[in-house]
Amino acid sequence: MTVAMEKPQTTKKVEPAAPVKAARKVSRSVVVAAILVVWLLLFAVLRGKQTLSLAAADLTDLHRWFNDVNDSIGANRNSNPLFLYFFNEIRLVIDNLVTFIQDLISQPSGTRPVPQIGWLGVVGIAGYVSWAVGNWRVALLAVAGFTFFGLQGLWQESMDTLALTLSAVLVALLFAIPLGVWAGLSDRFNRIVTPFLDFMQTMPTFVYLAPLTLFFLIGGASAVIATAIYAAPPAIRITAHAIRAVPQTTVEAGDSLGATRWQSLLKVLLPMSKRTVVMGVNQSIMAALAMVTIAALIDAPGLGKTVVQALQSLDVGTAFNAGLAIVVMAIVLDRVTTAASTREEAARRSKNRFLKWRKPLLGAGAAVTAVLVYMSHTYLWAAEFPGEGSTGSSIASAADSATTWAQDNLSGLTNAFRDALTNGLLNPFQSLLTDSPWWLVAAVLVGLGVVLGGWRAGVTTVVCVGLLVGTGMWSDAMTTLASTLVATVLVMVLGIAVGVWMGRSMMVDRFLRPTLDAAQVMPPFVYLVPFLALFGATRFTAIVAAVVYAAPVAIKIISDGVRAVPETTVEAATSAGCNTWQIITKVQLPMSRSALTLATNQGLIYVLSMVVVGGLVGAGALGYDVVAGFSQGELYGKGLAAGLAIVLLGVMFDRITQAAARRASA
C-alpha cells in the first residue's frame, strides 16, 4: 500500500521538470524573434526619422568642448603645475628612455652618424640572448630574422620599432609584475583589479591613443605610454594566475620551516611560477608590438609608420614589405620568449651530452658578442647594414606584380564576392541600423541585452546606449556596429566549420593549430595589406581582414569545446544510430554551447578592433573619425568622441556575450 501511494508522488514531481525547462528555452528564442519582428515592422513605418545623423564636417557641442579642452591644455601646458610637475615629467622620463635605446641601436647618437651599436652588434646580441634564454635553434631564427630586416632595406625602421617595443615592455613590466604578484596574494585586490583588466583588454588599440595625446602630445613618449598601458593587463593577469597556481601544500611547507612572507614570495612562489610569468611577458611583448605599429598614427617612428603611409597612398608593395618585417619581428620575439619559458623543462628531459658544456659555451659566446659589439661601434662597415635593400625592393615589386595580376585576373571573382556580400547582407543590415529611429534601435539593443544576458547586462546596455547618444556619434556607431556584427557572423560560420573539424580530428588539429597560433601573433595592421590588394580601399576590405584576424581565436575555442564533449556521449549517440551530421548538430554543438558563446564574445572584440583599424583603408565610420581626429586639429574633439563610442560598443558587446556565456554554462 505504501509503495502504491509513493509511485504517483514520484511521477508528479519528476514529469513536469522537462517541459518547464524546454518552455524556458523556447520562450527566450521566441522573445528574441518577437523583438526582431517588431523592429522590422516599425522600421518599415518610421524609416529615416530621428536617426541622429551627423555630416562628416559637423560638430556637436561635446566635440567643440573637447576641442576647447585640447586648446586650453596646449596653451597652459608649460604653466599649469599639474603638467609642469607631473605629466611633463613623465613625458620627459619616457622620452629619455626611448632616446637612450634609440641611440643605442637605431638613431645617430650625438655627433656620431650611426648608433652606438651597429647592425653587426645588434645581430650578435640578438643571437646570444636568444641562445642564452632559449636554445640554438631560436638563436639561428633570431639571427636570420634580424639579418632579414637589413636585406629588406628596413634596418633603421625595424630597430625603431624594437626600441619602442622594448621601452614599452620595460615600463609595463615595472608595474605589471608587482601588481600581478599582489593580485595573486590578495583576494580583495584581485577582485578590485579584475574589472579594470577586463575593461582595458576590451578596449580596441585605437582608443588608447587620442586621450594620451591630450596629455603627452604626439610622438614616441605617447606611443610608449599607450603601449605600456595596453601591454600591462596580460602580464598582470597571468602573473596573478601563476602565483595562485602554486600548490598550497608547498607554501605551507615553507611556512612550517619558519619562512617569512617575503621569503616565501622570493624563495617559493616566484621560482615555482617563473615559467607562467615568462608566458605573461611573452603576451605583453606581443601586445606591445601590435600597439607600437598602430601608434604610428600619433607619429611614432618605425615600421608602423611605413605601413600607414603606404596604406594611405595605396602602395601595396611597400606596405607588404614593411608588414612582412613586422611579422618576422613578431615571430622572433614570440619564439624567443616561448623558448625561455620552456627551456629548463626541456633541458631536464633532454639527454644531450653537450648540456654540461653550456656554461663554458655561453661564456665564449659572450666574448664573441662583445667583439661584434666593439666592431659595430668602431667600424662603419659593421655599423651600417651593407647594400641598399635589394631584397626588400624585390619583395615590394613582386607584391605589386601580384596585386596587378590579381586585379586583372581575379577582379571579376573578388568583385562579385564583395558585391554579393555588401549588397545582400551588409547594406540591408546597415540601413536597418542607421535608418531606424535611434530610440527604436536603443530599445532593441536593451531588449536583446536583457533576454540574452540578464538584467545586469540590460542595465549596462542602457548606460552604454545613453552615452553613445551623448557622444553625438550615433549614426557612425551604427555603421561600425553593422560591419562588426556582419563580420562576427562570418567569423562564427568559419569558426564552427573549421573548429568542429579540428575538434573531431586530432590530425587536423595538429596540422592547423600551429598556423592559427602564428596568425594570432601577427599585428592587426598586417592583415589589411593582402586584402587591400584584392578588394581595394573599401569597407569590405576591413570586414574580410577582421574575419581573418578574429577567426583563429574563435576556431581554437570551438575546437576545444567540441573535444571536451565526453567520448562516451558520442559513442552512445553512435550506437543509437546517429550519423555524423546528427552527432555534430544534436550532441557536440549543443554540449559546446558555452564554448560557442565564448567564441562569439572573443570574435566580437577582435572584429571590433580590426574594423576600426580598417578606417585606414576606406572602412569609414568611427575608425575614420579617430584617424581624422589625429590629422585634422578641428576634428580632434570628434575623434575623441569616436574613440569613446568604440569603447562603449566594446563594453556593451563584452558584457552581453559574457553574461550569455555564463548562462549557457550554468
Instruction: Write the H/E string, N to C.
Output: HHHHHHHHHHHHHHHHHHHHHHHHHHHHHH
Please indicate the percent range of residues in DSSP E strands (runs of 2 or more): under 5%
Shape: globular
Oligomer: single chain
Uncertain segments are 1-26
Helix content: over 70%
Biggest β-sheet description: none
Q: Look at the helices and sheets and give the structural class.
A: mainly alpha
Helix count, per DSSP? 30
Number of strands: 0
Radius of gyration, taken over Cα atoms and rounded to an integer in Å:
28 Å
How many angstroms does the end-to-end distance come to?
Answer: 40 Å
Query: Overall pLDDT, averaged?
Result: 84
Explain what this protein looks like in three dimensions.
It is globular, with a radius of gyration of 28 Å. Residues 1-26 have low confidence and may be disordered. It contains 30 helices and no strands. The protein has 666 residues and is mainly alpha-helical. It starts with a helix and ends with a helix. Helices cover 83% and strands 0% of the residues.
Characteristic key phrases:
globular, 83% helix, mainly alpha
Secondary-structure map with pairings?
Elements: H1 2-14, H2 17-46, H3 61-76, H4 81-105, H5 119-133, H6 136-151, H7 155-185, H8 187-202, H9 209-216, H10 220-245, H11 248-256, H12 261-272, H13 274-294, H14 303-312, H15 316-349, H16 358-378, H17 380-383, H18 390-409, H19 411-435, H20 438-453, H21 455-471, H22 474-504, H23 506-521, H24 524-535, H25 539-563, H26 567-575, H27 580-591, H28 593-613, H29 621-631, H30 636-665
